[in-house]
Amino acid sequence: DESYRFGLNAFKVLGGSYCIGSYIAQKLGMDIADLPYSVMTSDAIREKLGELTFVTATDGNHGRGIAWTANRLGQKSVVFMPKGSALERLHNIQALGAEASITDMNYDDAVRHANACAEKYGWIMVQDTAWEGYEDIPRWIMQGYTTMALEAIEQLKGEKPTHIFLQAGVGAMSGGLTGFFSDLYGDEDRPIITIVEPNKADCIYRSAEA
């Protein structure tokens, strides 16, 4: 039940927090396994890193996860939200210390704007969408989401699922978890995995169909 995760009512923080942790580990030349939460949030690590600003575009939960993580690390975050985003989601992100705003742009343009700001100001772009030359951070986000899968497997206590249903979203969570279960069970013994999305916003289905 992801509604209890860090009090954020969403799983998205798993991707953002693991991604930022991986970025910090790489920046410090360390293995992320040597940076547990107590160390990652310490004054010593903060002094080594200096002041960082993480930027992203989101309509809600991903940005809230980035804001939560940056807040815990004593760092800054900037969140650009596409037009039509709910004010409640904006306020939730701002409550975590982020500089957040609803733009007059659609989602794709908000992503481009966030990336342009990252390049201009030296911020770190943390987006769950990949493009050519920008693949490590989305991959880390996908890996972070697999925490859910590992926890589910541990709770099953050896019982193998026959079917797994995953929401499509932008593909990061469903792709990451599909990869996790494929690696875990192998091609021959893998459960039937079904990706589900609304019929009014079936972008992944249409992409696959094309």
Question: What can you tell me about this protein's structure?
Answer:
The chain is an alpha/beta fold and 210 residues long. The chain has two domains: 2-128, Rossmann fold, CATH 3.40.50.1100; 142-209, no CATH class. It is 52% helix and 13% strand. A four-stranded parallel sheet has the order 3-2-1-4, with helices on both faces. A two-stranded parallel sheet has the order 5-6. β5 (163-167), α8 (172-189) and β6 form a beta-alpha-beta unit. The longest helix is centred in the C-terminal third of the chain and has 21 residues, at 136-156. The two termini are 34 Å apart.
Q: What layout of secondary structure does this protein have?
A:
Blueprint: H1 12-28, H2 37-40, H3 43-49, E1 53-57, H4 61-73, E2 76-81, H5 87-94, E3 99-102, H6 107-121, E4 124-125, H7 136-156, E5 163-167, H8 172-189, E6 192-196, H9 203-209
Helix pairs in contact: 1-4, 1-7, 4-5, 7-8
Key terms for this structure?
single chain; 210 residues; alpha/beta; Rossmann fold; 2 domains; 4-stranded parallel beta sheet; 6 strands
Q: How does the overall form come out from the CA principal axes?
A: globular
The class by helix and strand makeup works out as alpha/beta
CATH architecture of the largest domain: 3-Layer(aba) Sandwich
**Uncertain parts:** none
Oligomer: single chain
Condensed summary:
The chain is α/β, with parallel strands linked by helices and 210 residues long. The chain has helices spanning 12-28, 37-40, 43-49, 61-73, 87-94, 107-121, 136-156, 172-189, 203-209; strands at 53-57, 76-81, 99-102, 124-125, 163-167, 192-196.
